[in-house]
Structures are given as structure tokens and as C-alpha cells.
Design brief:
Elements (H helix, E strand, L loop, with lengths): L5 H6 L7 H14 L9 H14 L2 H17 L10 H9 L15 E7 L1 H6 L1 E12 L13 E3 L8 E9 L2 E8 L8 E3 L13 E12 L8 E4 L14 E7 L6 E3 L2 E9 H6 L1 E6 L5 E6 L10 E4 L5 E2 L2 E5 L2 E8 L6 H10 L22 H22 L1 H16 L2 H19 L3 H5 L2 H32 L5 H19 L6 H5 L3
Parallel strand pairs: 1-9, 11-17
Antiparallel strand pairs: 2-7, 3-6, 4-5, 8-9, 10-11, 12-13, 14-17, 15-16
């Protein structure tokens, strides 16, 4: 059960989404709210990056699902305990740092950068504009003038307040919450002494241009880290800015690790009589490929050119293969005047012996996708008709499902639970029985006993049928049945019970 869905809502995905769906949603939002396109949406972009950083990490995502954003900030999924023994000490006596305990390092910020296949092949340098928090230079990160900052008297500088809640007599629980006086900062500043530049936030937002160096052979999804360039906060080390490369599709080439794949169309004459074609590479070179006459290229044939693929990362002089897949284009129709010439050039046709009773049919065009869709619709309609016109088969299927449900262990537990409830009614001396007269009491006990025996013998009959098939698997249920039967016998024969035989016998 997910405790909080804020990060999922920021990315516009469901809590049970996959990593691929997360990545797709992040790419879409990152491109939409990137500061280069929307400078005013810097805070929104930061929220998107923070949500993706947490949810893309399986361990952080598990902690967030269990404890929410507060658990991520505290570094644990407890949500009400203390992440370290020193937390309790700092809560009462202060941490000496003018605020609650924080991580020594700030959070990383992730930025998506779209790159072309040419840039990954040749290498490139891109400029990336980012919005980041920096320590206010006017107040030097204090939030106000020097000496105006005082420790919060309510939480004694810890930023957290604790209240004690009694669960049961003799057991209490300490619940840790954010101090409402200082809003978790551990310190207070008089409004007139606050810094006008940062409004006592200690940090200001500014724009910075980063130069992203894309090396030859880098891949889609590869990360480039700018250490210490993340958001700044007083008293902690800034995090990193991580740039994730997003490879755009190329109109000619498709990358497969170190190889490049392309398709080349050939006419029928080129496939049969040879050809000479050119290929423009990603570094603006021109390659010439030749197929000699007499070397026939089949439709779908695959050939490769060594050392013309993608350069290897950090070893750019080693390259993969350039794989070429040939697609032979056949003419839609042939002029009857040239058919005779083709027959004289091509191998002779194979003669076919046609019997006298043979039937002549017509070949028609067929779309495989349309035919598969038609067969699927026909199969669904056939299954509906089968159930409508052959109710015996449908009833048989329903009986099979019903038997499966009757033989399920879950039903046995329900029956035995009901059986135990009825037997408990007989065994306990209920208060209503004590105020009834003898006649009403006998009638009530007789009805309950008959009902109990009905459920008892019905459950035993179904139970023994099942045990006869899978006796070794349900031995425990057999012992449970004997336990309830013993309980019934003891209940009916205990002293003080009504003599039903004498009661029902004719006088």
C-alpha cells in the first residue's frame, strides 16, 4: 500500500507503474518544463527531477512507498522513530548546529539532454542552462543580519517536537513531528531583521550555464556528472548535477551497441545484374559499395562493412560494424511485350502436370494484418455462438468451475469457522438462555442443535470427498474435523444438557 502519491502525481504516473513508464514520463515532462524553454518553470522542473531521482531508484522508491517524502528526508522508512540514537539526544539538547540533523550532502539534480546520433558518433560540446539554489551572498546564508538568528525555544534547536501517545495501559509511543514554531529550521529570526534579498530563506535561485562534453561512443541513457554543482544549502555539501543523454532517432541509421544498422532498397535489375551505391556516414564521409554482376542479392539479405560502425567509448579508434539489410523492390506489373524476352533470359519454367478433374481458381491479394484481425474476430464470435447454441458444454464448464470452488481449501475453512461458531453457541451459557422458560429453552436448543448437525455432516461429506483425492495434502484439515466432532460430542453430553431423546419421544 502506497502511503503517499505526491511524486507519482508530479510525474503523472500510477503507483504501480514500471521503470520504463517512469522514464518515458520523465523525458516528456523534462523536455516540456526545461529552463531553456520555460525559464519561469524552474521550480517545477526541480520537482520533476527530484521525483524521478527517488522513484527511479528501487531502494528509494520502496522507502517512499512505505513512509512518504518524510521517510526519504530522514533516510529511513520508520516514520515515527529515530533514524539514529543521536537523534533523540539532539531532540532534547539541540544538535549544536542551529537546526535538526540533516544529511551531510545535498540531493542530486537530474537533467535530460537530447542528443543526435551524429553527436554521439563525432563527439560534441553542448551548453545546458540550469536553475540552482546558491547561498545568499548578502547574509552569507544566515537568513538575516549577524546576531539576529536565535535558537528556537520550543524544540531547542532540533527542528522536531515529540509528543507521547498512550497505546495501551503501560505502553506509550513517541511520535516525532516537525516543530510548528520554526517549521523544522531549529531557529527563529525577527521579521525586521530578515534578509531582504533571500527573505530569510538563506538561498537564492540563479541561472548557470554548464558545458556538457559528449565523448565519442557515448550511449543513450549514459550519465555525465558535474560534482558539487547541485543546490546549495548552509551547512551541507552541495549535491551533483547529473545530465542523462537521450538519443534521438536517426532517419537512416539505427544503433545497436557498437554497430550501426541501415536498410537499402534495390531494384530487381540491381539485385540480379549488380549495382554500385554510395553511403553517407555520420562523419560526412562517402562510402562506395559494389556488387559485381552475377552475384545475386536476395530480398532480406544482410551484409556488413567492418570498422564503419559506432566508435567505442574511450577507445574511439575501435569501431563496430555497419550492417546493411537489402530490400529488393519487385515491379507491380510487367509489360506483356517483354515477358518473352525475360523467359529467354531466365531459367525455363517447370512444367506442371494438370489432371483432368482439376479446378481452376483465382489468386487474390491478402493483407496478413487484416487477415489476422479477421480471424481473431471470427474466433471470438464462434466462442459466443458455442456458448449460446450448446448450453450443455457451457453448463459443463460452469460445473467444472463450481466443483473447483467446492474443492478449494478456503471453503473448508469457512465451513469449519461457521461450525465452530454454532458449537460455541451450544457450549457457552448465553445470558438469554438463563431468562427463558424451560419450554422455550428446549425449543431454542433443539433448533440450534439441528442446524449445527446439518452444517457438521455437510462439511464432513464434502471434506471426506476431497481428502479421498488429496489425502496427503489435507491431513491437517482431517485432524481439524475430528477436533470439531469431539467438541460437539462433549457439548451434547456434558451435564445439564437437555435430553433430546426424552423430549422428542411420544408420551
Amino acid at each position: 500500500m502506497v502511503k503517499e502519491t505526491l511524486y507519482y502525481d508530479v510525474l503523472g504516473v500510477k503507483p504501480n507503474c514500471t521503470q520504463d513508464e517512469l522514464k518515458k514520463a520523465y523525458r516528456k515532462l523534462a523536455l516540456k518544463y526545461h529552463p531553456d524553454k520555460n525559464p519561469a518553470e524552474g521550480e517545477k522542473f526541480k520537482q520533476i527531477s527530484q521525483a524521478y531521482e527517488v522513484l527511479s531508484n528501487p531502494d528509494k522508491r520502496r522507502i517512499y512507498d512505505q513512509g512518504g517524502e518524510q521517510a526519504i528526508k530522514e533516510g529511513s522508512s520508520g516514520g515515527g522513530g529515530f533514524s539514529a540514537p543521536m537523534d533523540l539526544f539532539d531532540m532534547f539538547f539541540g544538535s549544536g548546529m542551529g537546526g535538526r540533523r540533516r544529511d551531510n550532502r545535498g540531493k542530486n539534480t537530474i537533467h535530460q539532454l537530447g542528443v543526435s546520433l551524429e553527436e554521439l558518433y563525432n563527439g560534441a560540446t553542448r551548453k545546458l542552462s540550469v536553475q540552482k539554489s546558491t547561498i545568499c551572498e548578502k547574509c552569507e546564508g544566515r537568513g538575516g543580519r549577524k546576531g539576529a538568528v536565535e535558537r528556537c525555544p520550543s524544540c531547542r534547536g532540533s527542528g522536531m517536537s515529540v509528543r507521547i501517545q498512550q497505546l495501551v495501559p503501560g505502553m506509550v509511543q513517541h511520535i516525532q513531528t516537525t516543530c510548528q514554531e520554526c517549521m523544522g529550521e531549529g531557529e527563529r529570526i525577527n521579521p525586521k531583521d530578515r534578509c531582504k534579498t533571500c527573505n530569510a530563506k538563506k538561498v537564492v535561485r540563479e541561472r548557470k550555464i554548464l558545458e556538457v562534453h559528449i565523448d565519442k561512443g557515448m550511449e543513450d541513457g549514459q550519465k555525465i556528472t558535474f560534482s558539487g554543482e547541485g543546490d546549495q544549502e548552509p551547512g551541507i555539501e552541495p549535491g551533483d548535477i547529473i545530465v542523462v543523454l537521450d538519443e534521438r532517432e536517426h532517419e537512416v541509421f539505427k544503433r545497436s551497441r557498437h554497430d550501426l544498422i541501415m536498410r537499402m532498397e534495390l531494384s530487381l535489375s540491381e539485385a540480379l545484374c549488380g549495382f554500385q551505391k554510395t553511403i553517407s556516414t555520420l562523419d560526412n564521409r562517402t562510402l562506395v559499395i559494389t556488387n559485381l554482376p552475377g552475384e545475386v542479392i536476395k530480398n532480406g539479405a544482410v551484409k556488413c562493412i567492418l570498422n564503419e560502425g559506432m566508435p567505442q567509448y574511450r577507445n574511439p579508434f575501435e569501431k563496430g560494424k555497419l550492417i546493411v539489410q537489402f530490400l529488393v523492390q519487385f515491379p507491380a506489373r510487367i509489360d506483356p511485350a517483354v515477358i518473352g524476352k525475360l523467359e529467354s533470359l531466365l531459367p525455363p519454367r517447370q512444367e506442371c502436370m494438370i489432371p483432368d478433374n482439376a479446378e481452376e481458381v483465382v489468386l487474390q491479394d491478402l493483407d496478413p494484418e487484416q487477415e489476422a484481425r479477421r480471424q481473431r474476430q471470427h474466433r471470438e464470435a464462434y466462442e459466443e455462438d458455442e456458448e449460446h447454441f450448446h448450453p450443455r458444454g457451457a453448463c459443463s464448464a460452469r460445473r467444472t468451475r463450481t466443483c473447483s470452488k467446492l474443492l478449494s481449501p478456503t471453503l473448508f475453512f469457512k465451513i469449519f469457522l461457521l461450525l465452530g461458531t454454532v458449537s460455541a453457541c451450544l457450549w457457552l451459557k448465553w445470558t438469554p438462555l438463563q431468562v427463558m422458560d424451560v419450554k422455550k429453552k428446549c425449543v431454542w436448543q433443539t433448533g440450534v442443535t439441528v442446524l449445527a448437525f446439518f452444517f457438521f455432516f455437510s462439511s464432513l461429506s464434502v471434506f471426506f470427498i476431497t481428502v479421498s483425492c488429496i489425502i496427503f495434502k489435507y491431513t491437517a484439515l482431517l485432524l481439524l474435523s475430528w477436533h470439531f466432532s469431539s467438541l460437539f460430542i462433549w457439548t451434547l453430553r456434558r451435564p445439564g444438557s437437555v435430553d433430546y431423546v426424552a423430549l422428542l419421544a411420544p408420551t
